[in-house]
Each structure stands twice: as C-alpha cells, then as structure tokens.
Amino acid sequence: MSQSNSRAFKNAAYSHIAEVGKALSSPARIEILELLAQAPRTVEVLAGEISQSVANTSHHLQALKRAHLVTTERDGLYVIYSLAGGDIAELMAQLQSVAARHSAELEKLKREFFDDPAGLEPLDGDALLDRLRAGDVVLLDVRPEREYAEGHLPGALSMPLSVLESRIDELPRDCEVVAYCRGPFCTFSAEAVRRLRERGFEALRADVSVHSLSVRQKEHWDEVYRSKAPDSVSWYRPRLEQSLAWIEASGLGSDAHIVDVGGGASTLVDDLVERGFERLSVVDLSEEALAHSRARLGDAAADVQWVVGDATTRLFEEASIDLWHDRAVFHFLTDETRRDAYVDALRAALRSGGFAIIATFGPTGPERCSGLPVTRYASADIAAALGEGFELIDQADDEHVTPWGAPQDFAYALLRRV
Ligand SMILES: C[S@@+](CC[C@H](N)C(=O)[O-])C[C@H]1O[C@@H](n2cnc3c(N)ncnc32)[C@H](O)[C@@H]1O
C-alpha cells in the first residue's frame, strides 16, 4: 500500500461518509427520518406531517435514498418509505441528544417551549427506568397506534393523543401517569400531560423515545464490560459445557453457520474455533464485550464474524443459520413486543432443520441480572415461549455458580426449526 494509495483511499472513503452527512443537512430530512423511525410511511402522509408539498417531500426522500438512508417497497398503488436499518433510528436519537447537549440555543428553545406550568422536570431515560422498576407509574405511549405497533417501550399502554379524552377513564387514578411520544422534539406528550392534568391526573412527561432507550441499553452493556473484567460478571463460566455437548451431538459439519447471539465475552466461540468450526458469528449489543473476545482469540478472531447489533432485529439473511445459540439474552425480553421481534428474527434466520439452543434463568433463578428485570422459564416452557415453528429435542436444568460462589438456576432447551 503506497502513500498516494492511502491518500486516495481516505479521500474516497471520507467523501462517501460526507454523502451521508450531506443528506442529513436539512431540517426537513431530519424530521422525515424521525418520522420514519416510528413507522414506514408514504410520501403523501409524510408531506402532510412535515407541512410541505408532495413534490418537495419526494425530493427530500430521493436525497435520503441516494445516501442509502431510506428504502422503498411497493404496496399496490403506493410506495412505502422506511429507514434502511434500525441503526439509522439510533443515529437520529444520538444526533438529537448531541445537539441538545452541546447547543445552548437548542436547549433554551426546548426549555421555553416545553416550560411546565407545574414546574416539573420531564423524566430522562434513567429516571424513567427507575420509576418503571419501582412499579409506581403507568407509562402511556401517546403516538398513533401504528407507531406503537412497530415498537414501544416495555410495559407501555397505547393511548394515542387523538383518543386520550375518550379513553381517559381507563387509567388508574392511584398512581402517576407518565406520557412519552416520538422524542424530545415531539409535542404529543406535552399536550397529553396538559389534558391529563385538566382531568385531575398526576401526570408527567418523559423526554425519551423508543430509540433513545435502545441506545441507552447498548450504553448499559458497554459500561458493564468497561467496568468489569469478563471473568468477574455473574454469568461468567469458563466453559459452556451444556451448549458444547449439544453442538457436538448435533452432527453439524465444520462448515455450519453457528451464531452466538448476545455472546458477550463468552468463551463459547473459542471452544468452537478449537473444534474446527469455520463459519462462526458472535452478535452482541456491546462493542466492548466483543472487543474482549477478539483480543482473547488473537489471530483466530479474523475468521469470526463480529456483529454489533440487537438480537431483536433481522441481522442475518433468511435461512442462513444452522445453529442459533443464546445463553442469557432471551430472558431479558420481558416485553411481548421485544420477545415477538426476537422470535421473528430467529424464525427468519434459522434454516429449516437448523438448531436453536436457548438458555435462560430457571424458575428459581434470580429475578434480575445486571440490574435489569428478567423473565424466568422452566426448560420445558422455553419452546412454548418461542411459539410455532420449533420442535423441542432436549431440555436440561443447570446450576450455574457465579464467580463469587452464588448458585443460579438455569434452564436450557435444544430446539429444531421445523
Ligand atoms: C448475561 S450476558 C450473557 C453473555 C453470554 N451469552 C454468556 O453466556 O456469557 C447477556 C449478553 O447479552 C447482550 N445483550 C443483551 N440484550 C441484547 C440484545 N437485545 N441483542 C444482542 N445482545 C444483547 C449483553 O450485551 C450481554 O453481553
């Protein structure tokens, strides 16, 4: 690689990146991306929402499409626009939070607009999670129902602003109501809070979006792996014996595509490399976790596919996986929507006849892990939790012992995709 080659490479690479920046350099296009982060839409619907002509909106959408930020799909006579990936929604949430943190003008604008007559500060992500864990609030999603159906915060009730008044009596009066909407610059939740208070409810706004919490989840796990050594976390186990035994017994050849979902810094990948498996992928929300495994594996890491991503999204091509392994990730999906999304991703990616190994906390296991609530399963119930399309082949109960000697009940299920 010559020096002039390296200059040419950098020039070309940065101009591709600048194309993305250029596509973002328009208030209308940022608003469009925020709307598409909630749910796909047609150009006509978008035009109405951003108060621009269809021609103008279409022009903006073409710019976003050229930068590969949106994709289209035809539905009869309509063209439906969507984000090209969940990471774009996270980018928008990050962009907004960077702007709010570093622009005093924006902060002032927001304060003046959302000034709360009761003098209450909106809940931020941390405060909202604390209140949800304490269980003393009702969380209300006041966006249109279609946006709620695309994804919502765990435990949230859907009550779009347009029907709030007619359904207000469904809400309990003995606890505070917290409303959230599309994000920090959407006005639905402020309006919902005003109407709720008018009707005598104790109500508060949460300054979050569905995507800002997913960014926060990643930050949570990154912080865990930054602050703790991989062998000092409660789930650390020098070797995943049960999983290895089932993988060896599966009869899969060395060319099988095996994915460790939420693999963290687990040593399973090392053991699979050692056994000659050649097509291994490890997925995790946390880049920090994967960095530990890559460093541990050394040169062998180059032959593994490392994916920073969310197991509840489709990260792999359809029917491209021979074995899906998940130890202690599925149990974090305490909300039905996230569980459904995970199962959808698993069903799509696992080929027919392929295997899934799912391990969760068992019925007497802890109720939380890493500060987060979990759902516990008996090994016999894991298949039912996944729903149709899986045949239970084997099940096992295991007592995991944490690095500080505490026993934890784990449940394992080996399933086949039918
Ligand atoms: C309890 S640890 C288990 C790690 C590993 N499977 C093991 O057995 O050592 C849970 C792991 O799942 C990751 N994780 C949590 N939610 C996830 C999600 N939705 N998608 C991908 N990874 C996730 C976390 O970053 C963490 O590494």
The set of bound ligands, ions and cofactors reads: S-adenosylmethionine
Described by strand count, sense and barrel closure, the largest sheet is: 7 strands, mixed
Mean pLDDT: 93
What is the end-to-end distance? 49 Å
Share of β-strand residues: 15-25%
Give the strand line-up of the largest sheet.
Answer: 10-9-8-11-12-16-15
Structural class: alpha/beta
Low-pLDDT segments, ≥5 res? none
Helix content: 40-55%
**What is the number of beta strands?**
16
The rounded Rg comes to: 23 Å
| Overall CATH class of the largest domain | Alpha Beta
The CATH fourth-level homologous superfamily of the largest domain:
Vaccinia Virus protein VP39
User: What is the domain total for the residues?
Assistant: 3
CATH topology of the largest domain: Rossmann fold
Number of helices: 16
Q: Secondary-structure map with pairings?
A:
Elements: H1 3-24, H2 27-38, E1 41-42, H3 43-50, H4 54-66, E2 70-75, E3 78-83, H5 86-102, H6 104-114, H7 125-134, E4 137-141, H8 145-150, E5 157-158, H9 161-167, E6 176-180, H10 188-198, E7 203-205, H11 210-227, H12 241-249, E8 257-261, H13 268-274, E9 279-284, H14 287-297, E10 304-308, E11 321-327, H15 336-349, E12 350-361, E13 368-369, E14 372-373, H16 382-386, E15 390-401, E16 407-417
Parallel strand pairs: 4-5, 4-6, 6-7, 8-9, 8-11, 9-10, 11-12
Antiparallel strand pairs: 1-3, 2-3, 12-16, 13-14, 15-16
Helix pairs in contact: 2-5, 3-4, 5-11, 11-14
S-adenosylmethionine binds at residues 221, 235, 262-264, 266, 283-286, 289, 310-312, 327-329, 332, 369.
